[in-house]
Amino acid sequence: MPSDDPEAPPPTHPMIRAIAMPSDANANGDIFGGWLMAQMDLGGSNLAGRIAHGRIATVAVDAMSFIRPVKIGDEVSVYADLVSVGRSSIKVNVEAWRRARDSASERRVTKAVFTFVAIDSEGRPRPIAAGSV
Ligand SMILES: CC(C)(COP(=O)(O)OP(=O)(O)OC[C@H]1O[C@@H](n2cnc3c(N)ncnc32)[C@H](O)[C@@H]1OP(=O)(O)O)[C@@H](O)C(=O)NCCC(=O)NCCS
């Protein structure tokens, strides 16, 4: 996970990267919060899916913070950090960082705690196999 220093380069690889496009913007020209949450969901679930070894569903998003805006053309990187694994649930700290196209530095734009649940083919919670972390 990147440090709290907004200028510090992330020490880990992002789970996903995307470019914010004009179709992702609101009427002010800033990127929709919903689009950012979707990217965070994708990044967090990329980590949770590796642990669950199968189908998962997002069950909760806690402490969602939008810290600064994202602009069209920005590169958005989503970092995910495992918090805990329960019987069927996986809690993940997720942050999105933006990098302007003409800049080398990244700045944190959002953070939240996502909870995913491993589910079976019927959509019911299923236990996560021991030793899968
Ligand atoms: C995910 C789902 C199957 C869980 O069903 P459920 O009846 O709540 O299941 P349980 O009560 O047995 O809880 C399962 C686990 O989720 C956790 N959980 C449930 N609701 C939670 C919440 N609001 N916040 C945090 N954890 C939660 C439980 O603590 C439990 O964890 P554990 O097994 O590690 O102890 C069900 O809520 C669901 O289908 N939700 C819709 C999911 C969805 O459509 N997401 C969007 C698209 S992916």
Automatic annotation (TrEMBL):
HotDog ACOT-type domain location: 10-122
Domain of life assignment: Bacteria
Hydrolase recorded as keyword: yes
Gene Ontology molecular function: any one: long-chain fatty acyl-CoA hydrolase activity
Biological processes annotated in GO: acyl-CoA metabolic process; fatty acid catabolic process
UniProt GO cellular component terms: cytosol
SUPFAM superfamilies for this protein: Thioesterase/thiol ester dehydrase-isomerase
Keyword vocabulary terms for this entry: Hydrolase
Pfam hit, one: 4HBT
Catalytic EC class: hydrolase
EC number: 3.1.2.20
Annotated family: Belongs to the acyl coenzyme A hydrolase family.
Protein name, UniProt field: Acyl-CoA thioesterase
The organism of origin for this protein: Acidiphilium acidophilum (Thiobacillus acidophilus)
